[in-house]
Specification:
The structure is a homodimer.
Chain A lengths: L4 E5 L13 E5 L15 E10 L2 H5 L19 E11 L11 E7 L3 E4 L8 E2 L18 H14 L6 E5 L6 H10 L3 E6 L2 H10 L4 E4 L5 H8 L4 E6 L3 H10 E9 L21 H4 L3 E4 L6 H4 L2 H13 L7 E5 L4 H9 L6 E5 L1 H5 L2
Parallel strand pairs in A: 8-9, 8-11, 9-10, 11-12, 12-13, 14-15
Antiparallel strand pairs in A: 1-2, 3-4, 3-6, 3-15, 4-5, 5-7
Helix pairs in contact in A: 2-3, 5-6
Pfam family, one (chains A, B): ADH_zinc_N
Organism (chains A, B): Oidiodendron maius (strain Zn)
Protein name (chains A, B): Enoyl reductase (ER) domain-containing protein
């Protein structure tokens, strides 16, 4: 009999969450889904891939400190996007069958008993004419890929010859955005947290340059990397890196803020204060917030995104990267690794071993 | 024999400049202009009004710390916009004559000997069909008025029913911008530094409300003043007030940064760090820098601005306010009063008494 484990938000973390303390993998109580019948109008499914996202950290808070995302109630499962494999369906469902893979959103757990009211949270994977590996639909062809695609065309408005600087450039959004910007003829520079990531960007993903912000003086490194300055800064990290980027932006430069990963684990009084905002005036900068909620404006890019990026991934001119955490028992560590910036590309909990078990 | 005094930048101030130490009124050496002939192709004129602007503080620095404005060389006269009265012209000049008032830009001093090469710095006042008091051409009908007018239509893009919050709202730009926004059907709120200024805005200029940021908790006061939040924040001050404004902005709010008066007197390491820039993402804010350099985009509004604002000032529906400093001997104090925020409306050195002397 398989277990049914669930990843619980057990207490509000101080700083980076601690596995086993703030986030706990526990055995789910009650009868195991695979030993029961599907609920009327529902189905039973097994998790294959689970998306880990920085926004999870913002949800690990109390309701009075809630931001844009609803807080996880303490003692309940984290929720996230996932790909599940259908095991048993109620006879009233004709739109999918056992063995189908569905994109969903639900608790982070091994098995799902999906009631009729939760069925709309699950949809078949998009058409996949090139037979791409399904996990890509949580990354490049999922919401982070859409943020990169729509973010580039809607906000960055790429111009051939301009220089774009991207922070967390090897992250889920950054590594795709950089490749898309490169296709548009921009000079693409990245800021990352290790020499290994610098190598990945410049050798594997065709970035024009990258710096490790943990080594040396970032201001100096960026001045050397971009002697003609930077026209666009796409920010995924906030904090001091953002302040330095404002310093090196060119006249009429543009900032697109998409994340503040360096600040998510800090209380407001410890968050980094940006001191050089007067440069917004003297350099006549524009600064736009890009929230990764898939609003109508973003979904308007979806069809074009799927068509183009599927083709580019298939022909090898777009390289989506994943950081897999293997095994449900490691799920808390996987979330924490992401929050520490250990991942390259999209962070995904990979449960295919369990699915492929006999 | 009249004196010819000049306002000298004598040393780089620490913080707010000190009259008599950092800024000195001194007797200009050499023969007095009124006792000499005009230079070939030039003229001799007397200052009537001199504009005092916050940007003067940014120019009181050393070249290595220069920002967008060129620093004043130590030991030389401050320069600024002015209105002068022509005394004597060289016979080669036919475009204006003694007694004419000219708009100019030059050293802050009582009398000007304008050489042929400096003549293009001076132009006749714009047509003035309603016979408005000339000082208005340094304020509402000068560059600050153009910033307010073009800033509103080009950047704020006013929408009837929206709420705009303006800091330094009784200042040279703020008090005009608020009146213009009100004409467009916006709810107009101001942040100022005294109860007297609150009164002026709400009783005299028809603002919907205003708060004194020096009294009580600004965050709380603004929440009470704008229970439905704020759609646009027009910032003239930067610093902590800016941080609070970001907090209370509505979803999809817009920030237009036009000045950072609270920070001009501080070295970078003492400048206030804005900690809540992650709200730019979650509220999908846009933030635009409006530098008060009269670029082409701004000058495109000039004709319309003169036509409309002259009419509105004449019919009393637009009230331009001035803070006059009287007498050249008080010019250093006038600059410092402006930098301390003592002014209401446009800060102008008023030398009409001297001009009107027999």
């Amino acid at each position: 009999m398989p277990t049914n484990r669930v990843l619980i938000f057990s207490q509000v973390p101080q700083g980076v969450p601690i596995p086993g303390q703030d986030l706990k993998v526990v055995e789910k109580e009650g009868p195991h889904p695979t030993s029961t019948r599907p609920p009327p109008g529902g189905f039973i499914a097994q998790s294959v891939y689970v998306s880990f996202d920085p926004s999870m950290r913002m949800r690990m808070t109390t309701p009075d400190k809630a931001g844009v995302f609803p807080p996880y109630p303490i003692g309940t499962a984290l929720t996230s996007a996932c790909i599940v494999k259908v095991l048993v369906v109620d006879s009233s469902i004709s739109t999918f069958k056992p063995g189908d893979l569905l994109l969903g959103n639900g608790p982070v757990q091994e098995y799902h008993t999906v009631t009729a009211s939760a069925v709309p949270q699950f949809t078949p994977l998009p058409p996949n004419p090139f037979g791409l590996e399904p996990s890509v639909f949580l990354g490049a062809l999922g919401s982070t890929g859409l943020v990169a695609y729509a973010g580039l065309y809607h906000f960055v408005k790429p111009k051939r010859g301009e220089t774009i600087l991207i922070s967390a450039a090897s992250g889920a959004i950054g590594h795709l955005l950089g490749q898309l910007a490169k296709r548009e003829g921009m000079t693409v520079l990245g800021i990352v947290g290790s020499d290994e990531k610098v190598d990945i960007l410049t050798r594997k993903l065709n970035f024009d340059g990258a710096v490790n912000y943990k080594k040396g003086d970032l201001h100096k490194s960026l001045k050397e990397l971009a002697p003609n300055g930077v026209d666009v800064y796409f920010d995924n990290v906030g904090g001091q890196v953002l302040e330095v980027a404002i310093d090196i932006l060119n006249q009429n430069g543009r900032i697109i803020s998409c994340g503040a990963a360096s600040q998510y684990n800090l209380p407001i009084e410890k968050q980094y204060g940006i001191r050089n905002t007067f440069l917004i005036i003297s350099k006549t900068l524009t600064w736009t917030g890009l929230a990764s909620r898939p609003g109508a404006w973003m979904l308007a890019y979806e069809e074009e995104r799927q068509k183009n990026m599927q083709k580019w991934i298939h022909d090898g001119t777009m390289k989506p990267l994943n950081s897999f955490t293997y095994g449900f028992e490691n799920s808390a560590d996987g979330v924490v690794d992401l929050l520490k910036g250990s991942n390259v590309g999209k962070a995904i909990l990979n449960l295919t071993d369990a699915v492929n078990e006999p």
